[in-house]
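W.,

You were right to be curious about this one. When I first looked at the sequence I had no strong expectations either way, so I just let the prediction run and decided to look at it fresh. Below is the sequence, 497 residues in total, followed by the output.
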Amino acid sequence: MPRRVELRRQLNTFDVTNLVVGSIIGADIYVAAALGARLVGPASLLLWVVAGLMATVIALCFSYCATVLPRVGGPYSYVSEVGGPFKGFIVGWSLLLAEWVSLAVFPVAFTQYFLFFFPRLDYLSQTLLKAVFIMIIFATNVVGVKGAGRFNDLLTIGKLGPLVLLTVAALLFIGWNPEVAFSNFQPFVKGDLSSFGLALVLIFWAYAGFELSTLPADEIQNPEKTIPKAIAVGMLIVIIFYLTTNFAIIGVVEQPVLALSSAPLLTAGVKIFSFSSSLQLLGSLIIGAGALVSISGADESGTLGTSRLAYAMSVDGLLPRIFSKLHRSFRTPYIGLALICSTAFLASAVGTLTELISASVFLLSFAYLATSASTMLLMRKYPKSSMRLRGKKIIPILGMVFSFMLITQVNLYQILTSCVLLLIGVPVYVFFSPKHELHELKEALLSRETYLARAYEQGERFLAHPLHHLKSQIYRARRIERAWWVTNQRENIDSGG
């Protein structure tokens, strides 16, 4: 049953930090862990910091846009405001494509972890497994099944618990066997300059999603100070989390073994518990189950977000109306979901993990580049709204530089493929112009209430979920009113946090 979400008060730094962490950290760590280490060795740890700092700067560009132009719609709204509807459409189209490509990453990752337990699956069996995975994701999105309350707590423990267990056990292993860990860090650097570029792209993908944490500034207390501070603190938490996990894996697993592993977390778990066959089996099952559950959950929520974006563009007249056609019983865009899931399956069947992630980062970086440029134009257009922003000259320039850097590190094949997909958007835009907005559907999707509901969901994701409970305890102790007011639409029950 759908929930109604409202704000009792404007969000403070703790609230927004929670949103930043929730919008970034998900199952990406299960997918991206050690991808960079295979290319450049332990030096990839430095790239996790570099990628985090780059993401922080670009996230600040988004926050500046939200401060100057407090409007829902994200990059689509920002670019449209300064560049017109066509440029706004192209940016929205690139985000849609990037999210769609990301959906294809998770069936591939799920299959890789599944193969750890059943290594003899042939190509046809792997393809069928991806198809079943996508069908389950499609069904859950159409029906709209949502967990809540204690079940959500248990689900979060199931996702985070194995990762925490592995990291703690790995750090103890490293402390107990320092000579082994030291040898695993030798050599510290390998690969050439192009390997570092590709590693940076793959690692940066794990930080994507920060753009979803940008609420309109009028929902936040003292936004000029609160938003940058929350982004800085939230990104620091994310960087530490990613850095610790990868340090633990690299310290446990020998470099040649890690380079060949398709499921590095499981490989690390097997090594840690190698002294006991029973613990080795139990640890592998716990970590593997956590990975499979997390990857499934990430693709489910990612599919939901992608279908929402396609729905938004459809009700704005920018995509066929079929994308906004709702199921009579479940009130979900089932045809749009079917198209998104089926094409994502095809991409997962032909693309590798590296190719899909690279294409997604290219498309995201295109949108980031446009948003960073729009930041400067918006501040010129609305100088009074940007007077109190710090770093308003250097941050957008750095955002553009970092976005362009990521674009140039993707190989030529992914660049050409992504550009072709972007160009397909031109006839799509021309064909569906002039546009006739479906005002009732647009209000249902892009209203303040719907936007806040999405933000509330982000604040309960993965690592943000325990932070959410910690925040609630602190608020109770200090007698601070909870920000979120969550009610069932049929029953006036407060279930907020």
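Here's what jumped out at me. Residues 489-497 have pLDDT under 50 and may be disordered. And, maybe more interesting for your project: Strands lie at 3-7, 484-488.

Coffee later to discuss?

I.
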